[in-house]
Amino acid sequence: MTHNTPLSPRPLRHLPDVHRSVLTAAQLRAHGVSTAELTERCRPEGPWRFLLPQVVLLHSRTPSAEERLRGALLYTARESTPGVPVQPGAGEPHRQVYVDAVLTGPAALALYGFSAVPSLADTERVDVLVPRTRRLRPSGYVRVVRTADLPVPCAVRGLPVAPVERAVADTVAELTDANEVRGLLTEAVSGGHCEPASVVRELTAARLLSRQHVVDAVDALLAEGRSVAEDRLYRMVVEHGLPDPVWNVDLRLPGGPHLGGLDAYWPEQAVAVELDTRAPRQDEDALWSEYARKREHLERLGITVVHLTPKKLREAMEQQAAVVRTALMAAGDRDPAAYVVVLPR
User: 30, 83, 211, 236: least buried by Cβ within 10 Å?
Assistant: First the structure.
């Protein structure tokens, strides 16, 4: 005599709540749920329902924002082995591994905390990057974005998320309003998420700089990026107790040629700081050659030039302050610099 054993919740109890509430049909089978049992539980009046094809919501309530994201990843991810969550280690027990699926677009930016996109609760569509070779159709609220170059994801709330620059570019690709594009790019930089150069590289790779409203927004972005970098440089001087320099000056030889502009200059020590805010759309080799020629000329005159990038100021301000302090302290050991005229820029 055989008996139909009712589904016990016990096999699912070891999973975190959010993993226990959204699983694929294959994962449920690995937990002993038969196809017949799954069909029965997903009937219209049943306790479960299909969130997406082969993705099951293990309750009948409205799915939460995180459940929708995890459902989108389960729908698009390639299963490496049967069964559920891979357990990568004691530090992250039961973390779900999503293979070949990376969140991007507005949902990804919402995870990063952007205010220029709808909140996760208000995000209607979820974009997921998958390799171009995958055969997968969009379904429900999920848009499949195929790419030849799947980025290495960042982990945000345990989910694989495209780097900010890529998520910004994928979002901009769908925008036609210049103000929306400008606001998004500005927040990416002013919010400290990334540097202008990396955003412009992604926009270039996505071939979005042929659109005038994007080009206009990029011009504003580069101006914003320089302003943010200058503010960080000022904070570095103040917060790390460096002597006050003269800011934004031009140097000239007395009665001679213009030597170039500097972001900060300490005349007594003959130490200068120059920010590298080159735009990727420019000829970088030519521009770098110009930087190098100016630096060599100034150093021949006995002026030490410290070259800083916005990224270094954002990620390692204390280290950059130490570099500048060392240059200032070493001034006494050098021969006196040539006399130069310092003018406001």
Answer: 83
